[in-house]
Amino acid sequence: MTIQDSDSGTTIKRRHRQEGPQKHVIAFIFSIVLTMIAFASVLAGGVNIAFTVMLLLVMAVLQVLVQLGYWMHLKDKGHMIPILFMAGGFFVASLSIIAALYWMWW
After folding, report:
1. Among its keywords, does the record have Membrane (predicted)?
2. How far apart are CA 53 and CA 73, in angstroms?
């Protein structure tokens, strides 16, 4: 990308910083570790069921954040609109689930 400096009239060249495979490898390893923790919690067997369910939910949320951040590149600049639409969809889905549960138990 080339930028023209208005004060001195010189041209400044800026290079787009490339993201190397290191971050993708780290994200992949983190995803594998999260999956292994989830499997180990279920295979343990003697653990409280409520604790296992909560641990699985936490692992699922962390997995989603890793997937969206690194594989879908939502951590980069210029991705605010997709993030807002996903947040809106999450809000509408949550509201629908709450309304359905309320309607069933009322």
Report:
1. yes
2. 29
Query: Which residue range is the domain that position 81 belongs to?
Result: 77-106
pLDDT tens digit at each of 106 positions of the chain: 555 556 666 666 666 566 667 778 888 898 999 999 989 988 988 888 899 999 999 999 999 888 887 777 777 777 788 888 888 999 999 999 999 999 998 7
- Given a contact cutoff of 8 angstroms between Cβ atoms, the answer to whether 69 and 61 are in contact is no
In this structure, the number of other CB atoms found within 10 A of the CB of residue 72 comes to 12
Residues 66 and 87 in one domain: no
Asked if residues 63 and 35 have their Cβ atoms less than 8 Å apart, the reply is yes
What is the number of structural domains in the chain? Answer: 2
Measured between alpha carbons, how far is 99 from 11 in angstroms, rounded to an integer? 58
Same domain (yes/no): 54, 82: no
- SS3 call for 74: coil
